[in-house]
Amino acid sequence: MDFRDSPEEAAFRDRLRGWLTEQAGAFPTSGDEYWARQGDWHRALHAAGFFGLSWPKAYGGHELPPVYDVILDEELARAGAPARPSLGYLVQGLGRHGSEELRRRFLPGMIDGTERWCQGFSEPGAGSDLASLTTSATRDGDTYVLHGHKIWTSYSDVADWCLLLARTDPDAPRHKGISAFIVAMDQPGIEQRPLKMMSGVTKEFGQVVLDGATVPADQMVGAPGEGWALAMTVVGHEREPSTLGFTARYGKLVRELLARTDGTPPPELSWAIVETEMLRLHVRRRLSEQLDGVSHGPEGSLDKLLMTWTEQTVGHAALAVGGTGDPDLLHAYLYSRAQSVMGGTSQIQKNIVAARILGLGA
Amino acid sequence: MDVRLTAEQRQLRDAAARLANDLGPGAVLDLDDADRIARLEKAVEATGWRALRSDGASGVEVALVVEEFGRGLVDVPLLGPVLADDLAPGASSATVAVAGAARDARGMRQAVEPEGGRVLATEVGPLTSGVDLTRRDAELRGNREQIATLTDEAAVRWRTLALVATSADLLGTARGAHALAVDYAKIREQYGRTIGSYQAVAHLLAEGLALIEGSISVLRHAAWAVDELPPDEALHAARIAKLYCARAARTVCETAVQVHGGIGNTWECLAHVRLRRALASAELFPVRLEEIDRGLS
Ligand SMILES: Cc1cc2nc3c(=O)[nH]c(=O)nc-3n(C[C@H](O)[C@H](O)[C@H](O)COP(=O)(O)OP(=O)(O)OC[C@H]3O[C@@H](n4cnc5c(N)ncnc54)[C@H](O)[C@@H]3O)c2cc1C
């Protein structure tokens, strides 16, 4: 066991630190401005060789051990840079379930940031109970025709592509009739409806109404009926702080809050420091475990709970330090409330832990 | 000892509740409905409740009306004018000034505040926007002028009333958020059942109700104490109430957001409007834990 950097890791960290010093302050870190320039940030990170660190080289990654993602997150936090764009779960979903042809066509653009993606799973009536989704995909020659309504779709307004779940077999049992597609967002059958977050941010997520949109049949990801398995891969990874890189966001905010308090931090901030450090170390441990090939099971739900508590503790610290008069801090607090909902609510994570790890109940 | 409300107090509370239900915002879109706000303003002005204190009302009565207005998200001034009236009876169209801004200032013309042994008044300038979408702050304009004097004891009493009034608003806001979430839990279905039938959701809401009951108890004592206990004891009671109600209200409002899931995180859901109001009332006349310096009574 060694918590210190290896010589290669230390060299990487140095190089990254140097690059971040040059970039300092060039990219907005919050609010609508962040979302507006997130694509530029993504491409800049990738062009400099600092994005997709643990992903295959064939698709634009660097095939480095996962611990490099930790180094990246730590240094982003330290430099006060924006968090890395979180799309690891989409990469995993497409990587694991897509054909080699689809992977070659779509992964490079996803990873280098030249093509933007969104995830069209949730619907007004199907959130926690995703398998009750009703968006339909009906085969018509070489294409499928889509009808339905997706909601809370993050970054839908800037996305080129949507990884979309739709029902291809209405007669099959609920989990079996769902398939996944790569759908072009810019087409007549798709209407984008804005959705404002409670913080007032309008760029975070949107609604996507599908009324006769089409998708080529060969852009189905996996086999017909494999949509549910793909969804489980995606949400499983969406629960992991290591995939999401959010530790950088919390670390950065905690540093900013500390800088504002002269002398003793209020108790809320002290707790935020403790939680943030826990999460940083937790991510290190989890990523090290991946070196043994430990795969992602229901443990992801524990990680998601730890991440959520950390973010919400930091949110309360932001209120304690800055009050509501500081728009950035108020926003950080309000945004922290979403963490216990997105990617599966905290109640659902606890159900999973109780049932699948502890063997309690159904 | 009998700490129940009197029949008159219950009538006052019911009247305030009716007014809030009839004319308060029922949806986020209603916040921009100028017609509704004008009708609400007229109705509130007609009740005379902005001058409750100079009409001889006790702290308990003030708390009851403010609580119902918080529950109903009433978006015309009440708390500010009530406090102004206590400080400077007869000052017309007045609210309070705190830390360089007029509070609860929509449609108000002057803002009053205590300083040293004096009561100062300033003209209210343009409205500003902040965390609270239902009560607006405003800039102060021109010179502050002395309009009255104030004894130390009166200043402490006034501060106590301010803590009680903001605590009452917090309690009402929590009750409103809780009711919203309970209603939603009864109709939203996932996995073929209402979400309220899941213990995870039901327990959150049960905890919320317990926090509300605790808030009622500390607030009722503090509201009574305003006029009945020596100033330092009354202030202590009000600090306890403020700390408790602020923490309870934030928790209950956060729960309301959580129970609404994705919808709860959108602008269109009233849950965040209530959360925002709770944050604003917690910050107005704040109490720090360090101020609770006395042993248990
Ligand atoms: C910021 C943000 C970004 C998002 N981004 C995306 C995205 O990019 N793509 C996408 O597809 N979706 C996205 N979502 C949607 C998200 O996945 C859903 O909101 C979430 O799964 C909850 O579903 P719901 O909103 O329908 O809430 P509901 O499922 O209706 O839940 C309401 C309440 O009931 C509880 N509940 C429900 N079922 C149970 C149960 N069985 N046991 C105990 N409690 C239960 C929940 O915990 C919650 O408190 C996003 C959401 C947010 C807030």
Your description of this structure?
Chain B: Belongs to the acyl-CoA dehydrogenase family. Chain B: This is Acyl-CoA dehydrogenase/oxidase C-terminal domain-containing protein. Chain B: Residues 165-279 form the Acyl-CoA dehydrogenase/oxidase C-terminal domain. With 362 residues, chain A is α+β, with helices and mostly antiparallel strands. Chain A folds into 3 domains: 7-85, no CATH class; 117-226, Butyryl-CoA Dehydrogenase, subunit A, domain 2; 239-357, Up-down Bundle (Butyryl-CoA Dehydrogenase, subunit A, domain 3). Chain A has 12 helices and 8 strands. Chain A has helices spanning 7-23, 31-47, 67-79, 88-97, 100-112, 227-238, 241-244, 246-260, 267-290, 299-322, 327-338, 346-357, and strands at residues 117-120, 136-140, 143-154, 161-167, 178-184, 190-195, 205-216, 220-221. In chain A, a hairpin with a 2-residue loop joins strand 2 and strand 3 (143-154). In chain A, helix 9 (267-290) runs antiparallel to helix 10 (299-322). Chain A is globular. The model of chain A has no long low-confidence stretch (mean pLDDT 92). A 5-stranded mixed sheet of chain B has the order 2-1-3-4-5. Chain B has a two-stranded antiparallel ribbon with strand order 6-7. Chain B is 56% helix and 14% strand. In chain B, strand 3 and strand 4 (118-128) form a beta hairpin. By secondary structure, chain B is an alpha+beta fold. The model of chain B has no long low-confidence stretch (mean pLDDT 97). Chain B has a domain at 153-291: Butyryl-CoA Dehydrogenase, subunit A, domain 3, CATH 1.20.140. Bound molecules: flavin-adenine dinucleotide (FAD). Flavin-adenine dinucleotide (FAD) sits between chains A (118-122, 127-128, 152-154, 204-205, 338, 341-342, 344-345, 347-348, 351) and B (188, 190-191, 195, 198, 200-201, 258-259, 261-263, 265).
